[in-house]
Amino acid sequence: MHDIDALGDLRGQRVLLRADLNVPLDGSRISDDGRIRAVLPTIQRLVTAGARVIVCSHLGRPEGRPEPRYSLRPVATRLGELLGASVKLADDVVGPSARRVVAELADGSVGLLENLRFEPGETSRDDAVRGAFADQLAGFADVYVGDGFGAVHRRHASVWDAPRRLPRAAGGLILREVEVLRGLVADPARPYVVVLGGSKVSDKLAVIDSLLPRVDVLLVGGGMCYTFLAAQGFAVGNSLLEPDRFEACRRFLATGKVVLPVDVVVAPEISAEAPTQTVAVDAIPAGWRGLDIGPATVARFREELEGAQTVFWNGPLGVVELAPFAAGTRGVAEAVAALGTLTVVGGGDSAAALVSLGIDPARFAHVSTGGGASLAYLEGRTLPGLAALEG
Length: 391
Prior knowledge:
Number of strands: 17
Shape: elongated
Number of helices: 15
Radius of gyration: 22 Å
Helix content: 25-40%
Largest sheet: 6 strands, parallel
Strand content: 15-25%
Distance between the termini: 7 Å
CATH class of the largest domain: Alpha Beta
CATH architecture of the largest domain: 3-Layer(aba) Sandwich
CATH superfamily of the largest domain: Phosphoglycerate kinase, N-terminal domain
């Protein structure tokens, strides 16, 4: 992939910048502007170069039609505040308003198209439909810059088709993400410890298969740990369970690298008001469900993390949105943050957990902007958005 410098003099050039501005919203209020801040250096670099910057992104999962709750209007407002300059938001994606916003851009100014997923062509599996939409997007611009790492694992029009129609380069965010993740795959400093949480083993099968030959220790928590425990013969009550994954879990456990919880926090239901118990993993009451790792497990995981030179963490270790089930994630996150080595947080729910727990992301060496994309990279998959930027 080429850096922006390879595009030459950008003064007066229309640059289509694919960003990932899929920020969490509380109504119309942005609860975490991390993804906007992450792409800000690339936007500022283009502005300084005198480019006419056309930013595009998705937000949420609208079904190929406009939905006011998924409008990028709050993003335009916040981006303008961070840039210290007005950012004009088009009322549509490739329609009359978008054409007008693009036509009125001056050198060094920024415009924002409305949510890409308001158009069915963005996510269509029909190459012709997707390609026709990409033609409209590419028609706005002279060059393309890809800097939306959180979307590079999607074969979408703005990610895969549009860049192949224009001179193209990768923004600084994508180049940094790839540099860090390549280090986790190629030659990580050891000991190399991976912490995996999240709901389901099935979501992480491929990445576990890819990581186990490379890591020294794999610490497993979150809802997925109960399938591992059940595969060993433990009764797990009403905890999240995938019996069809028992064989895979036993195969992973046979490597001797997987460390499971020794105690868990359980409750009869997922509620902040529900009664809780902390029990050993062989004493989960019938009808109760595991919702967090317990303090003895946090201590065990801390021991495994001591001296680690490389750590990759993806997925909360409990139902972190509810205070009674957030202590496990907090304890492990603090242990990782304290290491001062190459500590990488795999974006998505993990990054959101840091924000909700009040843990400064700057305490980690790198917080990825794309959870799904980072996992796909570590699985060894070809990511369309990266492949499209090559050459």
